[in-house]
Design goal:
Chain B: Pfam families: MinE (PF03776). The complex is a heterodimer of chains A (about 270) and B (about 70). With about 270 residues, chain A is of the alpha/beta class. Chain A is built from 13 helices and eight strands. Chain A has one domain: 3-Layer(aba) Sandwich (Rossmann fold), CATH 3.40.50.300. Helices cover about 45% and strands about 15% of the residues of chain A. Chain B is built from two helices and two strands; from the N terminus they run ααββ. The chains are: A alpha/beta (about 270), B alpha+beta (about 70). Chains A and B meet through helix 7 of A and helix 1 of B.
Chain lengths: ~270, ~70
């Protein structure tokens, strides 16, 4: 992606925005970029615990926006990988002070004066002010969607709002895909979601228990794991950097796929 | 050849319909009302039946069109 300020958003809550932000941020850092991940979910701070950095929060985003702390003081450096920094949301302060223009200035400052290559912005759920603020500095967006009706519907709404804001470099992250359910026709496939939403995927992340395990431990999966989601997140980070990385066969039995393929050919269509 | 209708096919069809309304900023109930009113007007001119009358939104490329299918007999 050419965009250096990228908002991670979804409309619907609970689809994996925060996990995606943490893993892509860490993945990009692992690949050599200097990355800031910013939690904009004021009042419901979560990126810090997902990344295991909750014990090191001193200042937060609102402190920076209101001038009580310098960006450098508030950014928490992740010690597990070089060049990964977290700017946590405020858990208690008034979110009314979350001013889109000031936030935009802050992100510009990080990119232009603090030497960051990329800023990933973890948007709150919803389409209200929190989202609007998170999207204000964005040049591109990652729309996290689960292959499920409510998530797809909300993603469509968000895509409309992004376009209205003239944020154009947008991609889907299709999260929590269950290849077996897709194979038996009980889950929307990647192709279905792409067809409905009319946006290209840049990441396809399979459902993976290790996501929860690593979150429990405060580890970022992409830095440790070799599990399917860890691999898929690192692939996604590479694609974000412009590498050509083919999408993997997500653990579908070659058997089942082969059989399905044969049936499709035999009966022409589904 | 028709297999058991897969649950994802339902999902896809329902999504396409609801998104058509969402994108057009219309409520599905409004179109139901339009259908009722349309029938009333139609009946002034010729015998029309509710049966088979369909009014639906359809996406044609960038455009959203309202399609009324009115069987005359």
């Amino acid at each position: 992606m050419r965009a250096r300020a990228i908002v991670v958003t979804s409309g619907k809550g609970g689809v994996g925005k925060t996990t995606t932000t943490a893993n892509l941020g860490a993945g990009l850092a692992k690949l050599g970029e200097k990355v800031a991940v910013i939690d904009v979910d004021v009042g419901l701070r979560n990126l810090d615990v997902v990344m295991g950095l909750e014990g090191r929060v001193v200042f937060d985003l609102i402190d920076v926006l209101e001038g009580r702390a310098k960006p450098r003081q508030a950014l928490i450096r992740d010690k597990r990988v070089e060049n990964l920094y977290l700017l946590p949301a405020s858990q208690t302060k008034d979110k009314e002070s979350l001013d889109p223009a000031r936030f935009q200035d802050l992100v510009r400052h990080l990119l232009e004066e603090e030497g960051f290559d990329r800023v990933l912005i973890d948007s709150p759920a919803g389409i209200e002010k929190g989202f609007q603020t998170a999207a204000a500095p964005a040049e591109g967006a990652l729309v996290v969607v689960n292959p499920e009706v409510s998530s797809v519907r909300d993603a469509d709404r968000i895509i409309g709002l992004l376009e209205a804001r003239e944020i154009r470099e947008n991609f889907l992250i299709i999260n929590r895909l269950r290849p077996r359910m897709v194979a038996r026709g009980d889950m929307l496939s990647v192709e279905d979601v792409v067809e409905i939403l009319g946006l290209k995927p840049i990441g396809i992340i399979p459902e993976d228990e290790q996501v929860l395990v690593s979150t429990n431990q405060g580890e970022v999966l992409v830095l440790k794991g070799t599990s399917p989601a860890a691999v898929a997140y690192l692939d996604t980070a590479r694609r974000l950097r412009g590498e050509e990385v083919p999408f993997r066969n997500l653990g579908l039995d070659s058997d089942a796929q082969g059989l399905l393929g044969v049936l499709r050919r035999l009966f022409g269509g589904r | 050849m028709r297999w058991r209708r897969k649950s994802k096919d339902w999902a896809k069809e329902r999504l396409k319909l609801v998104l058509a309304y969402d994108r057009a900023r219309l409520s599905p109930g409004l179109v139901e009302n339009l259908k009722r009113d349309l029938l009333e007007v139609l009946r002034r001119y010729f015998p029309a039946h509710e049966e088979g009358l369909s009014v639906a939104l359809e996406e044609r490329g960038e455009k959203m069109v309202l399609i009324a299918d009115i069987p005359l007999r």
